[in-house]
Design brief:
CATH class of the largest domain: Mainly Beta
Number of helices: 2
Strand content: 35-45%
Structural class: mainly beta
CATH topology of the largest domain: Beta-galactosidase, Chain A, domain 5
Shape: globular
Number of strands: 39
Radius of gyration: 26 Å
Strand order of the largest sheet: 1-16-17-20-11-10-9-8
Distance between the termini: 64 Å
């Protein structure tokens, strides 16, 4: 792995990690040894426990509060900016901190009230393994942040900013002079999309490899901030619970391990990734809440029928104590989800991000729960309904609509965004790409959709459906047809009560609004366009992009 030579640190771009990236990278995994492994051990400098991993990494943990106060790799200090350390949340305060060595493992334990936190080092590795056990709400512990000194990995990416930028929202969304926007919230990624995050200079890589998130909340499609970079320094996050756009209650218990990993510039070893990492070496360390592989089970499905093979399908397991997920095989829908804590779970099958099937599955320690082939009823997928016209397909996301992809890493005011206004004509061939992914009361409410009907179609009542993925400030659609018929104002569905549309996330609770439009609303002249008006209604919200709004999944008029 790493030698003892200090290489110059160059300013280069970062990498957001995926499992696929590891195949071509220089690796630093659990078995990577160094010629200097004999130096493995720890000392006490009076204020900190100092751990030498026997490779190229030496780190310090405060004996008073459990902060990570130093991260020295190849003689270079990476930890800290603004006088702050790396730690849980913004630091725990006075804690009980202890250390012990068990063979080739050193464990530092931090106790703060009901919270337990752990750092572990393995001989010959350039990694720090971390666990956090949050037992209740008496202690705020929603994240671990690795604070990184300025100037080591500067970049100009969606989640970076400088103080020459102007603040455009809530002191955490910025606009550059060229009109592009930046924010620590703009990660682009769902939890299931990444295994590690960090930066590389080409010769040094610094990463956090995420945990399996079994005690986190929000499921596989959840989006939250992962990293930031500013003129003062950078931060890498493991989010244990994040209140923004949250769709589930907080879970409690031991979360981890997640790993701080240094490499020769490449991605961390795939042996550290969630779902791959094995920690039998930690079984006897006495970590509070720890459950080894023998105390866990597996759920496997023979296959899934009734799928639309144009889409990826994900299978999720969730109860109040834990969450897990896995991909269904494209060929037949087979899935296998391992490392599951014993219990009864709701098993949900998702087409894209849209739930199309649900059942129960009970998991026992050391066992495999095998499910027969799951058949998704045709009526469970709204795309199977016969429609006169449809804008976009039902998949639980706004993907395909105007500006949809950009909104996962930019603010709606970004110069790269197409105009949020503009009407849509059915049959034009550009219905989906012309329809904005988000609608706001103060920005583009009143959007018009033009369409023609045959004589038979105009003689009948029809159901119009609008699917949404989230809403801000209770924004929801009210429709009018030809200025002769207006729907009632629908009740707002349950949605997160925080910002979403402006900080890189459309992920809330999928909901379908249905409107029964009477035959009397349609034009009888088949040569004329009927006009559907979609307004956003709500008494809350403020102005512009923080007015009441909603994200669109699909819209159709049923036959």
């Amino acid at each position: 792995m790493s030698g003892s030579v200090n290489r110059p640190v160059r300013r280069r771009t970062f990498v957001l990690g995926t499992a696929a990236a590891a195949g071509t990278a220089a690796l630093a995994g659990p078995l990577a040894q160094s010629a200097s492994a004999a130096a493995f051990g720890y000392t006490d400098d009076g204020s900190n426990y100092v751990v030498d991993t026997g490779a190229s990494l030496v780190f310090k943990v405060s004996k008073s509060n459990g902060d990570l106060t130093s991260l020295v790799y190849r003689g270079v200090e990476y930890q800290g900016y603004g006088g702050m350390n790396s730690h849980i949340e913004s630091g725990l305060g006075a804690s009980t901190v202890s250390i012990r060595q068990s063979g080739t493992t050193i464990l530092i334990s931090v106790a703060y009230g009901t919270l337990k936190h752990y750092y572990a080092a393995r001989s010959g590795e350039n990694n720090v393994y971390l666990w956090t056990n949050k037992a209740d709400t008496s202690v705020s512990a929603t994240r671990y942040i690795v604070r990184v000194k300025k100037g080591l990995f500067l970049n100009d990416e969606p989640d970076s900013y400088t103080y020459t930028n102007s603040t455009i929202e809530a002191s955490d969304v910025f606009a550059k002079s060229d009109g592009q926007t930046r924010s620590k919230h703009f990660s682009k990624l769902r939890v299931m999309d990444y295994s590690h995050i960090g930066w590389t200079t080409g010769s040094v890589g610094l990463w956090i490899v995420r945990s399996n998130h079994e005690k986190a909340s929000g499921g596989p499609f959840y989006r939250s901030l992962l990293r930031h970079q500013s003129a003062d320094g950078g931060g890498l996050y493991e989010i244990l619970y994040y209140g923004q756009n949250q769709t589930e209650d907080q879970r409690f218990g031991l979360q981890g391990p997640y790993v701080i990993a240094f490499t020769d510039g490449g991605a961390p070893s795939s042996s550290l990734f969630p779902g791959t990492l094995t920690t039998s070496w930690a079984d006897s360390l006495g970590i509070s809440g720890y459950v080894g592989a023998g105390g866990r089970g597996r759920v496997a499905g023979v296959g899934i029928t009734g799928r639309n093979t144009a889409y990826a399908y994900t299978v999720g397991l969730a109860n109040s104590a834990a969450q897990y997920w896995g991909s269904a095989r494209a060929s037949d829908g087979y899935f296998s989800i391992g490392g599951v804590l014993p219990g009864t779970y709701t098993l949900t099958v998702y087409k894209g991000e849209l739930a199309v099937y649900s059942t129960q599955a009970t998991v026992s320690a050391g066992g495999t729960t095998t499910l027969n082939s799951i058949a998704i009823p045709a009526t469970n997928d709204p795309s199977n309904a016969s429609a006169i016209w449809r804008i976009n397909d039902w998949n639980g996301t706004p993907s395909g609509f105007k500006n949809a992809d950009l909104m996962t890493y930019a603010h709606p005011s970004d110069v790269r965004a197409s105009a949020w206004t503009g009407n849509v004509v059915i049959g034009s061939g550009s219905e989906t790409s012309a329809f904005p992914c988000y609608l706001w009361k103060d920005v583009n409410s009143g959007l018009l959709v033009y369409f023609k009907l045959t004589v038979a179609q105009a003689a009948a009542a029809h159901t119009l459906r609008i699917g949404v993925t989230t809403a801000y400030a209770n924004g929801r659609p009210q429709i009018a047809v030809n200025d002769t018929w207006t729907s009632a104002i629908p009740s707002p569905p349950t949605q997160p009560n925080t910002r979403s549309l402006t900080n890189g996330s459309y992920r809330g609770n999928n909901h379908t609004f249905t409107y029964s439009v009477p035959a009397s609303a349609w034009l009888t002249d088949t040569g004329q366009y009927n006009v559907l008006k979609i307004n956003v209604v709500s008494g809350s919200g403020s102005a512009s992009y923080l007015s009441a709004g909603t994200a669109i999944d699909a819209i159709d008029l049923l036959a």
